[in-house]
Amino acid sequence: MNYYRECRLCPRNCGVDRSRTVGVCGQSDKLYVARAALHMWEEPCISGESGSGTVFFSGCNLGCVYCQNREISSEHKGFEITSDRLAEIFLELQDKGANNINLVTPTHYVPHIIKALDAVKGLDIPIVYNCGGYESVDTLKMLDGYIDIYLPDFKYADSVLAKKYSKAEDYPIHAKRAIDEMVRQAGGCEFDENYMMKRGIIVRHLVLPSYTDNSKRVIKYLYNTYGDDIYMSIMNQYTPLESVLKYPEINRKVTESEYDEVLDFAVEIGVENAFVQEGGTVSESFIPLFDGEGVVKKVDKTNIK
Model pTM greater than 0.85? Predict the structure, then answer.
């Protein structure tokens, strides 16, 4: 079955023939990757000391106005490769000492990814599915048995905010269903002797300026639903870029008092399994260079979008 001919891989359910045009994600049925390299700035149990083997896919099924990776999410920068090349990349990252293979914004390329994972031989590090949380349960079920660690966002409990900032009013519904399926597949969290995650789920939540109530609702839902079966990652690294100039309420950093308010709430309701951020995490230096590193064996400038 060619899932790209009438694409319904994500909740956008756009149904377009991606062999002829692009979907809401901005991508055709060709596989585009912008960067494949060791990344040191994930959660400690994902990056460790040697780094996470991140593969940044071009395109995105969300339209977040504050996206830090706009070059690849909405400008669609990237290099065309095959599934066989993707399988080679996985092994190259493993050879560089990656703790895992970290698939970043992979939703709209799931068939390519499965083909690559079926083809690869000798890969013995965990596979991480790192997504925005706006996922189709049917697509996630295709990945059952392939993914060891799920690393989704849960951006919004408030559908009004989801519509305003990500053009996805139904985000809370689909994120909840998706996380349910991820927990079903991953089971409990497992770590090795160095406290590197081998299996499990970490749900990320980026605190937005002006919207601590949304953050509290997300955290309360996750803890009431899953307790200590999952980890949360509560982030303060929101970086206001030029794209949010017309949204004054989020055109600033998260204040220390806002972040502390959210963390205090998490502690009050009993959350223990959580990663938090300290100090100056707001920086454009956290945004990688999407220059094709590790993607093509020899960069062909005519092949870049």
Answer: yes
Residue 55 lies in a domain: yes
| Contact between residue 49 and residue 95 where contact means Cβ atoms under 8 Å apart | no
Can you name the residues that pair with 242 across neighbouring β-strands?
none
Give the C-alpha separation, 256 to 60, whole Å.
30
Strands 79-81 and 127-131: unpaired
Cβ proximity of 33 and 76 under 8 Å: no
Q: In this structure, are residues 196 and 45 in contact, taking their beta carbons and an 8 Å threshold?
A: yes
* Residue at 224 is within a domain: yes
Our count of domains for the chain comes to: 1
Given the structure tokens 């460790």, which residue do they identify?
A: 48
Kindly state the tokens that stand for 19: 């062999």
54 to 123, 191, 206, 240: CA distances (angstroms): 15, 19, 20, 24
184 falls in which pLDDT band (50, 70, 90)? Answer: very high
User: Does the annotation list 67 as a binding residue?
Assistant: yes
User: What domain range is 92 assigned to?
Assistant: 31-287
